[in-house]
Each structure stands twice: as C-alpha cells, then as structure tokens.
Amino acid sequence: MSMTITEKILAKAAGEKTVSPGQLINANIDVIMCHDVTTPPAVSMLEARGIDKVFDREKIVVTPDHFQPAKDIKSAELHKRLDDWAVRHKIKHYYKIGRAGVCHALLPEQGHIRPGEVIIGGDSHTCTYGAFAAFSTGVGSTDLAAAIATGQMWFRIPESIKFVLNGSLSKGVYSKDVILAVIARIGVDGALYKAMEFTGATLKEMSMEARMTITNMAIEAGAKSGIIGFDETTKKYLDEHLKEKIDYTIYESAPDAKYAAVEEFDCSKLEPMVALPHLPSGGVAISDCAGKQMNQCYIGSCTNGRIEDLRIAAKILKGKSVAIRTLIIPATPEIWKQAKDEGLFDIFYEAGCVIAAPTCGACLGGFMGILAAGEKCVSTTNRNFVGRMGSPKSEVYLASPATAAASAITGKLTDCRKYL
Amino acid sequence: MAKAHVYKRDHINTDEIIPARYLNTDDRAELASHCMEDLDADFIKKAKPGDIIVAGFDFGCGSSREHAVWSIQGAKISAVIAQSFARIFYRNCINCGFYPIELADAVNLINDGDELEIDYANGVINNKTQNKKIEFKPLPDFAIEIINDGGLLEHISKKQKV
After folding, report:
1. Is B11 in contact with A24 (Cβ distance < 8 A)?
2. Which CATH architecture fits A5-265?
C-alpha cells in the first residue's frame, strides 16, 4: 500500500484496493462544477441523444462566471440555456447572478470542496480544488455531459511528481511567485498528464487562499491535477466554510510512495516573479524585467481574485494614484462585500481604479478590460498566451497582486518591495 | 488529396486554435470559420476539407474548451499530427471521435504542403510527396473503440444498449 495521495483517492473512487500509474479506472464523481461556456454545449449533447438527465441534482454546482453579467446577445443565450437546464433539473446548488462568482473561488468559499473527494469541472483550472487534499481535474464538454448523466468518468491513473517547497518566503514574495518559479523551471508541459503534489515547509505558512493560487496553475505545467496534503490550516478553513455535508476522509501519501520525479525548491531565495509573454513558463525575477512600460493592470480571476489578494493590493495602493488603467475584480459576491466592508473599495477608488462585479472578465479575453493591439497588461491571472486578453498583438505579464499593484502606481513593471 | 499544414511550433494553445472571443457560441460552422485564427489568420482560407494539421509538442495546451476540437472538426480537417498533445485536448479529441496522432519528430518528417494518406488500422502515415511511409503508435484499444463508435456519448449509449 505505498500509494500517493492521488492514487489513494482515485482507488477509493473506483472501488479498488490499490491502483498504480497507467491503470484505467472508472471513478465515481463527488462534485461536478458547471459554468456558462462549457456546460450549455454539454446539455445540448445530452438533449440531442435523448438522455437529458442528471445523476444527482445535489452533487452538481452551477455558476455562470465567464461572460457574466451577459456581455452580448450570444452570451445571454448561453446563460439562458444554462438557467433553463439548472431550473428544469432542480439543481440544488445553482448560484444565480447576484450570488454567482468565479467558479474556482466560489466553490471552496461556499463549502462545496471536501478532502478525499473526486471533483471534475468543465474548466481547465478545476485543478484549483486540489489545495484541499482532493483529486480535481478539468474536462471538456463531452466528459462533462457523460459525468452529468452517469456520475462516472474514466481516468488513467497519473504518475505523480513531488514538489518540495522549502524555506520561508521573504517580504514581497507570495504563492504566485512560487508557482511561476515552479513553471519556469519545469516548463508548460513539464508535468504533462501527471499529478503535481506540493509539500514542504513553505506551504505550512500559507493560507488556503494562497495555496489555491498554486494548485490553480498546475494546468499551466500541463498537469492533470495539483494537490496539497491536509493540515490544520485546511481544517480551519473547512470548519468555517463547510455547510451541509461536513464529514470527509483525509488521505495522505505513504512515506514510500513512488514518484516520477522529486523537485526541490528553496523558496527563501525567491524574488517577486513576472511571467513574460507568451507562455506561463516565461517567469523571470522582477529585477530582470522592471521598468517595462504597461498600459493596464488587472487584479482578479480564479488565481488571484480572493480577499487576501485584494488586501495586498490595497495595502500598496493606499494613498497612491495609479498611472495606468487598473481593474479590480473581486472573484465572488462575498469577496466583493468583504472588500467593501473593510474599506478596500475606498482605497481603490481614491487610487483611480475601476471596481467591477465578479466575473472571469478579461482574464480570458471575454470583456471588462480587453487589450488593443500593441498594449501590455500586468495581470494577476494565469495565462499570457497570444491574444489571451484581447488583440493577438497585445501582451500579458503574469504577476502577484503586489507586483501588479506596484506596477499600476508607476505604470511600469515595478518591484513591489519598494511599497511594503 | 490531404495536404499537410505544418506549424513548427510547440505549445500551440487553445486560445490560438479558437480565441475566447468566439466562445459565446457552440455552433460548429461558426467556430470553424475562426479555426486557428490567432496562430494563422489565413489558415481557414488555405485549408481544404480533408487537410491535416501538423505541429510540435504539447498541441492544444491551455483551456478545456472542446470548442477547439469542434472548430477543427467543423473546418473538416481530417487529422492533427503532433509530437505530443496537451491532456485535456487529447481527451476531448477522443471523446469527439477525432483521432489525435502522436508522432515523434513530426515537424521534420513532414513538410508544409506534403500530401498525406493515413492508415489508422496499421498506424502508418504515407507521405506521398516524399514517397515515405512513417509509422505511428496507434491509440490504446479502448480509445479506438470510443472513436470507432463516433465519440464518448455514442460509446456509452451503445454499451448501455448491449
């Protein structure tokens, strides 16, 4: 029984005593996440084949987020299809506009993510939920449709790579900088088809919010999933957020579990990082890119749109004015309210920022901050592919909320430590 | 005649294959009209039904949008040959009944404009222009079964009927 945490969770979900990498299994799914871009096509596929059913209306969580509030007529049609379906099947956890938010921030916050469970979602960043010692992966619309109807999905058991994160982060360095450094080292296909298992002392000092930034970007290294073991910090977050189903099973990797590779990082030496265009693996230290002129700053998304991120940005922007257009997009309505109640909105307003409603917005080039040809944006999001936030001739520079906020003040890529 | 469109690039991502500005629809014909737009705006004008895309490592990385596969299928591209595929895109291809061909050194074995013929059963690409037969490793049997059934949902329906 020398399995990794990922193997143990998948073995349980498949009803097997043991599994090993390469093995094909059929797993029972505990939670399915549905949003406005990939779910409507999945529903249409089921309808077209006369199998318009849901396996369990209580295990599906629905929130429009990518193009919400509807950005155009076609998006409104997608939302209508999503709404018709969710209402028709009496989906229990359906977050309508007003309570809808960026899915990967919303589901943990609303208590839908539990350790030891298998979660899939029609979105590549579904790997975020692995921060809670769960197996979680993104799928396309057909897999989503099959899982909605049957509650099951086939998987090939992935090999795991262990990432040992050592040392305390220095001032101005955050979990975003850590994951950008990891991806810079292994590349955007460095963990292709594999599970990234993160461990080490650096994580122990991170909040759940910070840990989610790390697992969120596992897909940017090509991984099937990212996972972090359970500890007191996980327990505290779950105690505060789980509502209905509060029981869960804790799995951990056996001491002699097998890994395809082990990568060690001395995080105490890290500087704030920026991933240069056009790959998330383009990470360099801020000292190697500071001074580059930007046109926009974007603070939000499933990677860095949580309350902790907004607090860090506000701390830096307090009493300052932004030199470039700066968008603040709290990821969920609760985060939005919390930021308002804590007075962060006043700070952002005084600094000259735009504060938007929760949405994926311009992170994927939807709306709410699209870039023109030749423009450059420093962004707390997860991808800087060609055309990701607008024109194929624009550029995206990925960074932490602190680096983004500091860069907003000067209008150039800036070392946030000057303002801390 | 299936002509190869060779892109000597790794990490061609789903944002390049079908930019998110078109994700407000799942209409195959409309998606097809923007296929590969942010990589090569002329692709859709050049590509004829049956043509083949050839690329380097990690083709289809990024988003889970199956729209990327739909746009390629909608454009009537008959195959994608890449040195490796990103995981979700690879799975989406199989689920849509579209065979992803993994071929080491693909971008050097095949030149832009080469005429290709694919023998899926035996795992052979016949490069007619270069008069060369290139072997590729066929997909595992379970994946071929899904593709032969026309995709995952057809596969599941068939199994349930049996």
Report:
1. no
2. 2-Layer Sandwich (3.30)
- Among the partner-chain residues A77, A150, A385, the one whose CB lies closest to the CB of B15 is A385
B58, B61, B98, B102, best to mutate vs chain A, most A CBs in 10 Å: B61
A68-117 pLDDT, tens digit per residue, is: 999 999 999 999 999 999 999 999 999 999 999 999 999 999 999 999 99
CB A158 within 8 A of CB A260: no
Q: Are A180 and A398 in contact (CB under 8 A)?
A: yes
Going by C-alpha positions, the residue among B152, B147, B153, B110 that lies closest to residue B132 is B110
Give the architecture-level CATH label for domain B2-161: Alpha-Beta Barrel (3.20)
Cα dihedral B89→B90→B95→B97 (10° resolution) = 110
Q: Which CATH number fits domain A274-419: 3.30.70.3190, 3.30.230.10, 3.30.499.10, 3.30.470.20?
A: 3.30.499.10
Please tell me the predicted confidence (pLDDT) of residue B1: 82
Rounded to an integer, what distance in angstroms lies between the CA atom of residue A395 and that of residue A337? 31
Q: B36 in contact with A at a CB cutoff of 8 Å?
A: no
Given CB atoms, is B38 within the 8 Å cutoff of chain A?
yes
Domain residue ranges in chain A: 5-265, 274-419
Q: What percentage of chain B carries pLDDT values higher than 90?
A: 96
- Within chain A, which residues score under 70 in pLDDT? 1
Backbone angles phi, psi at A310, to 5 degrees: -70, -35
Query: Can you give the pLDDT at residue B53?
Result: 98
The one-letter amino acid at A249:
T
DSSP string across A292-305: -B-SEEEEEHHHH-
Phi-psi region of B89 (alpha: psi -120 to 50; beta: other; left: phi over 0): alpha
Please report the ipTM that was assigned to this predicted complex: 0.96
CA distance A86 to A196: 33
> Closest Cα of chain A to B70: distance in Å?
11
Domain locations in chain B as residue ranges: 2-161
